[in-house]
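SAMPLE LOG
Freezer: B-3
Tube label: C17
Construct: single chain, 382 aa
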Amino acid sequence: MSDPIVIIGSGFAAYQLVKAIRRQDANAHLCVITADDGHDYNKPDLSHVFSKAQNKDDLVLATGEEFAQQHQLTLLSGSKVDSIDAQSHCVRVNGERIHYSKLVLATGASPYIPLIEGNGVERVRTLNSLDEFAEHHDALNDAQNVMVLGGGLIGVEIALDLANAGKNVVLVEPAPTLMVNQLPELVGLKLQQHLRSQGIDIHTNAKVEQLNQLGNKQSARLNNDLVLEVDEVVVCAGLRANTELALSTGALVNKGIVVDQTMQTTLVDIYALGDCAEFMGEVRAYLQPILLSANALAKTLLGTPTEVVLPTMMVKVKTPSYPIQLAGVTSGSEIERWQIDAQSHGMVAKAYNSDNQPIGFIATDQMASQAFALLRELATKY
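STRUCTURE (predicted):
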């Protein structure tokens, strides 16, 4: 039997790749190596687990064993890769050498924890994986007062979910407005206004400088000297690609593991996919680009080199009481001007470049229903 295609990781990207390979080839030899249980689950569901009163078992679509059986692969769960020998085409795991024909790094990303003083930092909660959710579920479920650090897309989603679950939520964001990497100021302020109407206490232009544990409570001192006492603190301050393995092999790493149009790293027969991969200068940690990249990579791994082509894609923010959908370029210096249609029932903001071409849009609230028409318009003009 030929050496297997080895995939390191068992998150969304890894398992979408497995499914894409199996749609094309029922017999390809596959091996998945993962440090966790290898369960198949939908990671975006972590953004609304508390309002739905869900636990870990509710989120599992298939156990690791079930997934391995369904897709006819070798699963090495609870296993950490010690090293990769790119020259010999092998990985060392559990003291053994496993040779590969192709190797895929789907090592994901880890939560970024801001530099904070105090003994409470060790008790902060993160919700970036099924295992993290299981670890912190009971503490967060029992908490009544929760602080969320980070007002980006994930922080906003989790803050609203916790509020919908009946908790008192404080959201702390260093930027002047929420979701600053996706939304212009006016839209960010509208989102902020809505979250406040849902009872969320929002502090922008603020960050926690010190966090101390006081019995069962956490005492947080902000940079404006405001002191807030809560039961738990959830950190949603962004992700950093897990690149350690790639670095150890000598692959080029920047913000993520640098890949070409076929998702190959700078090393022969080694590829990267998902939250750890930097494609065309960006780490694209959204579902649609990962799906499209997995489909193309599956063809490449099976012998038909295929470049990844990413169309203009839409992002849906999971804030049910205030829907937001956006696509294209919605932040940065490429935007010359905004055209904004603000109504009592929502807003549509269109971004234009210096050539007066539409390059992105944001649709909110009831006007989010216009998103697909706006996407079609954007795709034909940009």
